[in-house]
């Protein structure tokens, strides 16, 4: 039931006013008060509402000014906003070069190794620097671990669950000059010997590098501890120092003997065959052999002062006439040019010089001819015999002239650059100072080696 209060006004008269909550007063506030003619209360309420509204507008104005100021600052100095950005501190993960070398080894690929896991190691145990362990499994049941320091140098390289042959093969990858016989004996003796920790066993030492072998609780282990700074694995086809020097001696000796051979034969031939001795390029000396000259289908054939005919600047010295058949001659030298073209130094009764492109064949009577055929080579021949006395005479008088220059040698790519000059200089010094080296070269030459 609604309750009303009745008011009597001397002028306005009597009016009933409901007692209780008024929804119009709640929602419309001062407007309702003015409609009910509550002027003083309505003004007071309106003033209070205006104060709250003023505070809200002032706050919005401050926020708007701050936003405009920041926009202006960012537009006027874009570089400063860029410099305030925090740098990306996430490290870039790269594979160390030594690990890439390991993973490119034929040993790695042939035995089916693959990277299983990697983790950082404690510097309190391994010492200053960053230490990473790379752990490998394989399809051949072997395992491998490599510890890298500071992303560049190898601290340890270990192989587990191998046999003596594979362990030996593994070590030879890293040390080309190691004594294989002694290393094999060490591995055979220690690889399967039970121990508590791998580094408690006595190591095999090679040039400061330590190699440990033994059998611990998870299987036999071979561990290589290179000396400091080991960061480059030799190429797999690379020769060690000893083998490089042996091959260098062989190569330089071959070039020396080649130069000696040319000098000896030129001296022997220069008086009898002046046109041949005047030719300065390399050629093959043949034993002086009787042959017959004939060009089928041609009346004659030219003889030149050098191989290659007029195309190579040769001068024609004369012609051999074939109208009456083959012409008997002798041959003493041969030169092969590009395209399989063969030239022979021939001596007839009236002429001597280079004749182009013949090969040996026989006619029905058994006569042998040098015929013009660029597709075939010359026949098998014997070496020109030189006397022991003559060789030693030439050698002893001017052996320095036969030493090949460093630049003229076609180096075997298995010989590392660091050994080439060293080995060459050692050879030349030994040749100049040692009589035994002289005797060895002379005997090698005379023996046809």
Task: Give the structure's gist in a few sentences.
The protein has helices at residues 23-35, 39-76, 78-83, 97-103, 106-110, 123-126, 164-174, 180-190, 241-270, 274-278, 388-398, 417-433, 435-446; strands spanning 3-9, 13-19, 113-121, 131-138, 143-149, 153-160, 204-206, 209-216, 219-225, 284-293, 300-304, 316-321, 327-337, 341-347, 352-356, 358-362, 368-372. The chain is an alpha+beta fold.
Indicate the topology.
Blueprint (H helix, E strand, L loop, with lengths): L2 E7 L3 E7 L3 H13 L3 H38 L1 H6 L13 H7 L2 H5 L2 E9 L1 H4 L4 E8 L4 E7 L3 E8 L3 H11 L5 H11 L13 E3 L2 E8 L2 E7 L15 H30 L3 H5 L5 E10 L6 E5 L11 E6 L5 E11 L3 E7 L4 E5 L1 E5 L5 E5 L15 H11 L18 H17 L1 H12 L3
Parallel strand pairs: 10-17
Antiparallel strand pairs: 1-2, 3-4, 4-5, 5-6, 6-9, 7-8, 8-9, 10-13, 11-12, 13-14, 14-15, 16-17
